[in-house]
Design brief:
The complex is a heterodimer of chains A (352) and B (262). Chain A is built from 8 helices and 20 strands. With 352 residues, chain A is an alpha+beta fold. A 6-stranded mixed beta sheet of chain A has the order 6-7-8-3-9-10, with helices on both faces. The longest helix of chain A is centred in the middle third of the chain and has 18 residues. The longest helix of chain B is centred in the N-terminal third of the chain and has 35 residues. Classes of the chains: A alpha+beta (352), B mainly alpha (262). Chains A and B meet through strand 6, helix 2 and helix 4 of A and helix 7 and helix 8 of B. The complex binds adenosine-5'-triphosphate and magnesium ion (MG). Magnesium ion binds next to helix 1 of chain A. Adenosine-5'-triphosphate (ATP) binds next to helix 1 of chain A. Chain A: Keywords: ATP-binding, Nucleotide-binding, Transport. Chain A: It holds the Pfam family ABC_tran. Chain A: This is Spermidine/putrescine ABC transporter ATP-binding protein.
Chain lengths: 352, 262
């Protein structure tokens, strides 16, 4: 049985439909990310699961129990906020123990649990500090410990890392994932950072305009995007205007270059389509296995250390490609002619 | 530039004199009860007066109840308005300002008309009832200050998110108010409390017309019948107000976690 089920969830603010027919079933211990641009309804979905917002329609079940109309304080859900939201008048230990005190647990049990939680987040000595005496990263860890102390059925995190600086953001997200795995707690993580979502999730829900456009494992979302929006929102994508030349053979025409796809095309002859490729599947020069070759001109090169990003003009359109740095291969000169090759099975055809 | 500075200093000096001179005069006069030498005779006579002690302690007790009742009404109201009815804030603020616009004499006549012995709720019929009415009147008079203080206190915390954090940890409304909201606005409540205290101690109109033995009417009575004692009383009342102001400053400065917030 799924740990958390969301069925036909709807939310409108006045005439504004913010969440539309949202369906999601999460397994016990799964780590799910909600990914999408600002205003797409991620927070609203999360707040409905937490009980801070009441749905306009649909149902939410936790462990089989219908909680759609249950108060937020009766759902036993852990919540971590972007702004930490620690109680400023309480020490770290009192913050972590708050939920247990509210539940009137015995004092000894609270003390033991607080110690255990502070060890879990790697801050065993900071129990007596006040929130204002902690760094942002430490505060967010304490907020996590506070949410976990009550042994919630589900853990919800709303952009917990976006107020932190880049380095801590990466280390803390690993730590959150690690703790989540150890406790085996069902988790929903909201973010608008695609790298964050792809790197730590079991599955990613890509949202746009209140709709879940695609739900799948990070590898699947990145490599087999189902819609144009998903393809463009997740990762960098080169898009080339193309035209169907011969649907049966899977032949497309990009300017003067013919591209033969590995599968037939469903669109009729002459239909304009978009041919898409990730920068890393394109290779500078010919390479074994790359059956499609374009000729173009180098427009720009960016040396990023381990990666060399090259911008080229191909058939009058701009594309970007990434190659790994190799000491023997200096970046190509801007303005020179060059060939780009790609394996046709790595190309995506996006319907409009 | 220089002359500008000079003028500001002059203005400041004039203001200081305007406030300080009458005060100094009063103080000086209060010390002249014994012919030819400065003495504390007036103060001694005031403090020895049993009526002083009775009326003063009556007013202190009234002040304490007023503060408790005021805080009990204002804190949940201001919290709820901030959390759930933000667009009602201007209206509520206007209502809390009314006691500054409506003279106490009007309020007290309204009370007497509404709650007299032949009304449905004859509060003025008994001593306890009249005390209750007086206390509620005091709470009304201090409402503008109490509300503003608490509302300012609430502004320094993220009321919405803290409430939700507490809710997700299982807390109900009373727990949230008692354990999260009140402790974080305690400094604000205290500064509201000191202003309330100063108001209640010096209040004359309500107490006098409801005929209660409060400190305000006592001061008025002494002022009408004695020479040096009223000056001493004025100095005492003034010191109480200033001590209250000082306490507001102290409490604000020495609260453990507030210096953190922004
Ligand atoms: N209380 C509310 N009243 C009216 N409209 C709201 C309310 N809360 C959210 N909305 C609207 O719902 C839409 C979705 O908001 P939501 O906060 O869920 O977006 P989000 O995906 O979390 O965005 P972000 O990445 O910026 O946090 C927005 O257009 C927002 O304006
Ligand atoms: Mg959001």
């Amino acid at each position: 049985m799924a740990s958390l089920e969301i069925e036909h969830l709807e939310k409108s603010f006045g005439a504004n439909r913010v969440v539309k027919d949202f369906n999601l079933s999460i397994e016990e211990g799964e780590f799910i990310s909600l990914l999408g641009p600002s205003g797409c309804g991620k927070t609203t979905v999360l707040r409905m699961v937490a009980g801070f917002e009441s749905p306009s329609g649909g149902a939410i079940r936790i462990g089989g129990q219908d909680v759609t109309h249950l108060g937020a304080n009766q759902r036993n859900i852990g919540m971590v906020f972007q702004a930490y939201a620690l109680f400023p008048n309480l020490t770290v230990a009192q913050n972590v123990g708050f939920g247990l005190r509210v539940a009137k647990r015995p004092r000894a049990e609270i003390k033991a649990r607080v110690t255990e939680m502070l060890e879990l987040i790697g801050l065993p000595d900071l129990g007596n500090r006040y929130p204002f005496q902690l760094s942002g990263g430490q505060q967010q860890r304490v907020a996590l410990a506070r949410a976990l102390a009550i042994q919630p059925r589900v853990l919800l995190l709303d952009e917990p890392l976006s107020a932190l600086d880049a380095k801590i953001r990466v280390s803390l997200r690993e730590e959150i994932r690690d703790i989540q795995r150890r406790l085996g707690i069902t988790t929903i993580f909201v973010t608008h950072d695609q790298e964050e979502a792809l790197s730590i999730s079991d599955r990613v829900v890509v949202m746009n305009g209140g709709v879940a456009e695609q739900i799948g494992a990070p590898f699947e979302i990145y490599n087999q995007p189902k819609t144009r929006f998903v393809a463009q929102f997740v990762g960098t994508l080169n898009a080339l205007e193309a035209e169907v030349a011969d649907p049966e053979r899977g032949a497309l025409r990009v300017g003067s270059t013919e591209v033969i796809l590995s599968e037939p095309v469903t669109a009729g002859q002459g239909t304009p389509v978009t041919l898409a490729a990730r920068p890393e599947v394109l290779a500078l020069g010919r390479r074994e296995g790359n059956d499609t070759v374009f000729t173009g001109r180098i427009v720009e090169t960016h040396f990023l250390g381990s990666i060399l990003r090259v911008r080229m003009e191909v058939e009058g359109q701009l594309i970007a490609l990434d190659t790994f740095n190799r000491p023997g291969n200096p970046p190509p000169k801007v303005g020179t002619e060059a060939e780009v090759s790609v394996a046709s099975r790595d190309l995506l055809v996006l319907a409009d | 530039m220089k002359s500008k500075k000079l003028w500001s200093w002059l203005a400041l000096a004039f203001g200081a004199l305007y406030f300080a001179l009458p005060l100094l005069g009063t103080l000086e006069f209060s010390l002249r009860a014994r012919r030819g030498v400065y003495s504390l005779d007036a103060y001694r006579s005031v403090l020895a007066d049993p009526q002083f002690r009775e009326t003063f302690s009556y007013s202190v007790v009234m002040a304490i109840f007023t503060i408790l009742v005021g805080a009990l009404i204002v804190v949940p109201t201001a919290y709820w308005v901030r959390l759930k009815l933000p667009h009602w804030r201007p209206v509520v603020e206007f209502i809390t300002l009314l006691p500054l616009v409506i003279p106490p004499i009007v309020i007290v006549f309204g009370y007497i008309r509404l709650y007299n012995t032949s009304s449905i709720l004859p509060l003025t019929g008994t001593t306890t009832g009249t005390n209750l009415l007086l206390m509620l009147g005091y709470a009304t008079l201090s409402l503008p200050y109490m509300y503003r203080a608490v509302d300012t206190g609430l502004r320094t915390i993220d009321v919405g998110t803290l409430t939700e954090a507490a809710q997700s940890l299982g807390a109900g409304w009373s727990t949230i108010l008692a354990r999260v909201i009140l402790p974080n606005v305690l400094v604000a409540v205290l500064s509201g409390a000191f202003i309330t205290f100063a108001i209640v101690i010096g209040e004359f109109v309500l107490a006098s017309l409801l005929n209660r033995p409060a400190f305000g009417p006592y001061m008025q009575l002494t002022g009408a019948n004695k020479a040096y004692e009223p000056a001493a009383l004025a100095v005492i009342a003034f010191s109480i107000t200033w001590i209250c102001m000082g306490l507001i400053q102290l409490v604000t400065r020495f609260s453990k976690h507030t210096n953190a917030k922004r």
